[in-house]
Design a protein that fits this description.
The protein is of the alpha+beta class and 285 residues long. Helix content is 48%, strand content 12%. The protein contains 5 helices and 8 strands. It starts with 16 loop residues before the first helix and ends with a strand.
C-alpha cells in the first residue's frame, strides 16, 4: 500500500469540452461588446449626412449675348423680308398702273389724231368747195364780159405770161391720158385704172410716153429740169410745196389748166392754174 493512497488528489476535475466552448463564446461576445463600446466612446461623432441637390448649368454672359444676338438677327431678317415683300407688291402695282396709264394715253392720242385728221379733211373739203365756187364765178364773169371772137384755137394768153401750144408727140400722149381720167375717184395710194392719187396719176400718164417716174410726189418734184410757171408746156409736172418735198403734183395740160387727183371729195378734175396756183414746175420731156 502506498503512502499516498489515502491522500486525496488536489487536481480539479476536467471540464467537458462543450462547456468550455460555451464559456469561451460568451466571453468572446462580452469582450467584443466592450471593445465596440470603447471604440464608440473614443471615436468622435461622424458628420451628419446632407442630401445633394443637382444644379442646372448656368449660362455665362457670352453665351447669353450670342443667343440674344441670334434672336435679334432673326427678327431683323423677318422684318426685312416683310419690307421686301411690301416693296415688291408696290412695284408691281406701280407697273400695272403705269401700263394702264400708257394705254389710256395712247388711246387718247389716237383719238386726238383721228379728230385732227377728220377736221383737216373737213377743212380741205370746205376749201375745195370754196375754190370751185370762186372759179365758177370767175369763169361765168369771163364768159359774160369777153367777146365771143376773143377766143381762138392755138396759142392764147394764160395769165402771168404763160403761153400754151398744142401738145404733140409724147406730151400729147401724157395730156390725153390725164384728161381721160377726169371724173375717176381719188384714193390714197391708188395707181389706176379706176382710181388714183396725185402721184399715181402723174406716174401713169408718163408711162403712156414710155417714161418711168418715181412713185412719190416728193421725188417727182425733183425729176427733170425746173421751169418757170410763165413758160409752161403741156406735159410739165406741177408741184405744190418745196421742190424735193412736195405734198401734191399734177399734169399741166395747156391752156392755163392742169389735171390732178385732188382729194376724195372731188376726185380727178381739170382746173385752171388760178384755182390753186402751184409752187413750181419741172420738165421731164
Amino acid at each position: 500500500m502506498s503512502l499516498t493512497a489515502h491522500i486525496p488528489s488536489h487536481r480539479k476535475p476536467r471540464r467537458s469540452a462543450s462547456k468550455l466552448a460555451v464559456r469561451a463564446g460568451v466571453a468572446g461576445g462580452v469582450l467584443s461588446t466592450l471593445a465596440l463600446a470603447g471604440t464608440a466612446s473614443a471615436t468622435p461623432s461622424a458628420e451628419p449626412v446632407h442630401e445633394t441637390t443637382l444644379e442646372m448649368p448656368v449660362l455665362n454672359m457670352d453665351l447669353a449675348s450670342e443667343v440674344s444676338s441670334s434672336v435679334a438677327k432673326a427678327a431683323e431678317n423677318t422684318r426685312a423680308a416683310a419690307v421686301d415683300g411690301e416693296l415688291n407688291a408696290l412695284e408691281e402695282s406701280a407697273r400695272t398702273g403705269a401700263a394702264a396709264e400708257a394705254k389710256k394715253a395712247k388711246e387718247d392720242a389716237q383719238q386726238k389724231a383721228d379728230a385732227e385728221q377728220k377736221a383737216k379733211e373737213e377743212a380741205d373739203r370746205k376749201a375745195e368747195t370754196e375754190r370751185a365756187s370762186r372759179a365758177s364765178a370767175r369763169a361765168s364773169l369771163s364768159t359774160k364780159s369777153a367777146p365771143a371772137s376773143s377766143s381762138s384755137e392755138g396759142s392764147s394768153a394764160q395769165g402771168s405770161g404763160t403761153v400754151s401750144a398744142p401738145a404733140t408727140g409724147s406730151a400729147a400722149a401724157i395730156v390725153n391720158f390725164a384728161r381721160a381720167q377726169v371724173g375717176k375717184a381719188y384714193v390714197s395710194g391708188g395707181t389706176g385704172p379706176s382710181s388714183f392719187d396725185c402721184s399715181g396719176l402723174v406716174q401713169a400718164a408718163y408711162r403712156q410716153a414710155g417714161i418711168s417716174l418715181p412713185r412719190m410726189s416728193q421725188a417727182q418734184s425733183s425729176a427733170g429740169t425746173s421751169v418757170s410757171l410763165s413758160a409752161l408746156q403741156p406735159g410739165d409736172i406741177l408741184y405744190w410745196g418745196s421742190k424735193g418735198s412736195a405734198y401734191h403734183v399734177a399734169v399741166y395740160v395747156g391752156g392755163g389748166k392742169f389735171v390732178g387727183a385732188q382729194n376724195s371729195s372731188t376726185g380727178i378734175v381739170e382746173r385752171s392754174l388760178s384755182y390753186d396756183k402751184p409752187t413750181g414746175a419741172v420738165r421731164v420731156l
